Structures are given as C-alpha cells and as structure tokens.
Amino acid sequence: MYKLVLVRHGESQWNLENRFTGWHDVDLTESGVAQAKNAGRLLKEAGFEFDQAYSSVLVRAIRTLNIITEEMGQMWLPVERHWRLNERHYGALTGLDKAETAAKHGDEQVKVWRRSFDIPPPAVDESSEHFPGHDRRYKGIDPRALPKAESLALTIDRVLPYWHDVISPAIQANKRVIIAAHGNSLRALVKYLDNMSNEEILELNIPTGVPLVYELDKDLKPISKEYLGDAAQIKAMMDAVAKQGQAKK
Ligand SMILES: O=C(O)[C@@H](CO)OP(=O)(O)O
What we know:
This protein has nine helices and six strands; from the N terminus they run E-H-H-E-H-E-H-H-H-E-H-H-E-E-H.
C-alpha cells in the first residue's frame, strides 16, 4: 500500500478578494500562511515522512509546500515544480470578482464556468497579460500547449501526463509523495483517482491548506481517502468555496 498526500495551497490574496485567479501568480495571505503551517503541523503529528515533493510553478503552491516542509523539519526534500500542476487557466475571467460576475451573468452561468466538466470560460487572446506566453517561466514550452482558457476536462488533459510520466512511477518506486497544487488541478487528479463521474466532480470543492491523504493499492487505486483536521471546520471551508461563485444577496 502507498500513501499520497495532496494539499491545495493556503488562502491566497485573490481567494481573499474573491477573484478568479487561474494562472495569475498571487501570494498567500497571513491566514494562508497559518493554514500551511497548520497543515505541516498535522502531517508532522501524524508521523508523515516524505521522499519527494511536487508543486506547480505558482508562488502560492510553492510557498505552501515550503512552509509545510519547514514545519515538518523536512525542508531538504527534493522538489520538482511543473507547470502541468498549475491551476486551471481562467481565461478572460482572470482577475474578475466572482460575486460581481455572478450578479452580472447569474449564479448558474458562473457555476457552469467554475464547475462544469467541459465548458471552458471565455478565452484570452495572445495579446492579453494573462496569456502565459508572455511569462519567462513558460519559455521553452510549445506555445500550442499553453492555455488561453481551460475547462476541467482540458485541465485533466494537461495534469494527467505529468501524473502518469512522473508522479505515479515515483510512487511505485516507493517514494512517499506530497503534491502542493490548486483547487482545480487537484480536482482533476481526484476525479481521475476516484474515477468520479462528470456529475459527481461538479459538487467537489477542495478547501485551502488541508492535507488530503490517500491510501493507494499497488495499481494506485484508492483504498481510502481522508482530510486531516477538524471535520466540521473542513466541511464549512468546502461549503464556503462552493458559495464563492454566488452573487451577494
Ligand atoms: O480562482 C481560481 O483560480 C479557483 C481557485 O481559487 O477558483 P474556483 O474555486 O472559482 O475555481
């Protein structure tokens, strides 16, 4: 049996401001830092030791992982950062206020943009500041692979090659792995691991800064899955994520 830990970054500045974030690079808030410390403390108390860590190339995930490994006394861990673990690209919604967008287009439309399986938000064009082709960290990647807007389905298409080529072989080579990533890049992975239907994934919201521990069999099929921490608090955090896309009453 293998163990795998997934963690969504702690609260970011744009989570706090309730703005669509995607590939925009924002840092953690103070409470995001506290959430990451708490995640590290919980993992340490539960006796976790890792051999390999992975994160996206976005600061909020990188910093969350740093804080967790520092808290655990495992800062020396090898880390591989990869753009394929980035958040889903929010296209032309990037930067907009989620509640204001819902007031303008309706809660249902925003739920479609946030959570439908295969309907992407409106795309940016290559002149947009939110097109990743302008960012040095994505140099060397085939521009056709760089997103202008992604649905969850498209996010799955770019996350899974990294899972199959890099992460799952590491796990099967007995490396104990932690992955720090994002609400939707982790939903992509969870959908795949748990073999969830397109309808089931619609209602799945992942809280910030809470370790999600999987036990996997030899073929990496889940045996069990649980969040570390206070169940009532975690449920409240998941409900709050779901509500972020509703217009203010
Ligand atoms: O804005 C985003 O990039 C994501 C995660 O923070 O938000 P949502 O939960 O609306 O998909």
